[in-house]
Amino acid sequence: MTSVKIKLNQSAIKKLQQQLELQAGGNTMPPLTRDADKMICCLYKEYLTRRDHGISKRDSKRFTNEYFKSDIVLSKWQYTDISDTKMELGQKKYLHVYIGDEFELDDNAIVYMENRFKNDLTEVIDIVSKFIP
Q1: What is the pTM (predicted TM-score) of this model?
Q2: pLDDT of 21-32, one tens digit each?
Q3: Are the CB atoms for 123 and 117 separated by under 8 Å?
Q4: How confident is the model at residue 16 (pLDDT cuts 50, 70, 90)?
Q5: Taking the CB of residue 31, how many other CB atoms lie within 10 A of it?
Q6: Distance CA 89, CA 95 (A)
Q7: Average pLDDT, integer, range 55-67
Q8: Domain count, the chain
Q9: Tell me, what CATH number does 85's domain have?
Q10: Which of helix, strand or coil describes residue 107?
Q11: Backbone angles phi, psi at 118, to 5 degrees
């Protein structure tokens, strides 16, 4: 019997753990700061609203930075805070952030939010309304 040694760096180990959790039906996503949690809740609320209005999944997941001007919670944030929080969500695989001002919700983030909020839009709206001073 031959043994094989494989060297994995930290990034490869983390990626492998995430894949195993997803295959096992786990819903483990990296923890978020409070600001990132607020942002993902607002984005998910908008995603659900778009879906309720008959917009395709592909288009409902896509956003531009213009969205932040219209959101009642996020429009009060400074641009650098929005940018930093968006990058955090991108690094933790909740968003795909593209060059320019476009980004989209990752499917894993949608699954995470679906499992977090079982009652869909009404529960998300309730949470987001708590962010409004």
Answers
A1: 0.70
A2: 554 455 568 899
A3: yes
A4: low
A5: 8
A6: 6
A7: 97
A8: 1
A9: 1.10.10.10
A10: helix
A11: -70, -25
